[in-house]
Structures are given as C-alpha cells and as structure tokens.
C-alpha cells in the first residue's frame, strides 16, 4: 500500500465483506473535521475519521469476534454488533459516526474493510453474518 493511499486522488479501493460490491474511501476534511469519504456508486457517505481508532480500541477491549450487523440508518441495528456500536450513545462520540443525515448507517458494511486494509482488524468474508476482531 503506497503511503499516499487514502487521498481523493488515490483512494483506498475496497470490497464489502461478502465481496459483492466495490467502493472507495479516502480521508478528507469537512467543516474543520477529519472525515472518511465513502463513495459507493453514485452515493457518498461520510464517517467521522476517529471511528477507526475508537472501533479498534473497542474491539481490543471486546477481545473476540463481533458480528458486523450492517443496517441502513432507518432500520434498527442488531444489538451487540459493530453497527449498533457505531450509532450507540455509549460509544466515544455518544451517537452516530455516520455524518450524513439519512445515510448514517451501513457503518458495519463500509468501515470494517478499511480497518482490514489498514491492518487494524481481521474480517470474515461469508455471504452473510460476517464478523471482525482487532488485530
């Protein structure tokens, strides 16, 4: 991985955990805040950049595999999943890591593959029910 990967000019090329969709992500600054821009087809999602270190710390503390449980913002997240943690009032930002109203979900779909690429976590790659754990 080149050291300039993760820029708008050279985004990370990623695949969803089941391997069914490709997308790209890069680090940017929006309104003075470090963000991860996630481009899936014609849709752009934004996540708080600190989610990477916060999720890594939580997974380290958890110490075992955790189900991803990806869900759209409008749908409830399954308890005990990465998705539920990514929107919980008990996480370090006290709520959503997703920053674009209406598109704040899917945390458990798009952030874990980036963490795998950055060597922060390992993932399973099944058709469904994927899990991750800290490296």
Can you tell me about this structure?
With 135 residues, this protein is of the alpha+beta class. The chain contains three helices and seven strands. The protein has helices spanning 51-62, 82-85, 107-117, and strands at residues 12-15, 22-30, 33-40, 43-48, 66-67, 121-123, 131-134. Strands 1-2-3-4 form a four-stranded antiparallel β-sheet, with helices on one face. It has a three-stranded antiparallel β-sheet with strand order 5-7-6. It is globular and about 35 Å long. The chain starts with 11 loop residues before the first strand and ends with a strand. The mean pLDDT is 96.
Task: Please report which band the strand proportion falls in: under 5%, 5-15%, 15-25%, 25-35%, 35-45% or over 45%.
Answer: 25-35%
The domain tally reads 1
Question: Strand arrangement, largest sheet?
Answer: 1-2-3-4
Q: Main β-sheet, in a few words? A: 4 strands, antiparallel
Rounded mean pLDDT score: 96
Give me the secondary-structure topology.
Layout: E1 12-15, E2 22-30, E3 33-40, E4 43-48, H1 51-62, E5 66-67, H2 82-85, H3 107-117, E6 121-123, E7 131-134
Task: Give me a quick take on this structure.
The protein is of the alpha+beta class. It contains three helices and seven strands; from the N terminus they run E-E-E-E-H-E-H-H-E-E. It has one domain (12-129).
Feature tags:
about 140 residues; alpha+beta; four-stranded antiparallel sheet; three-stranded antiparallel sheet; 7 strands; globular
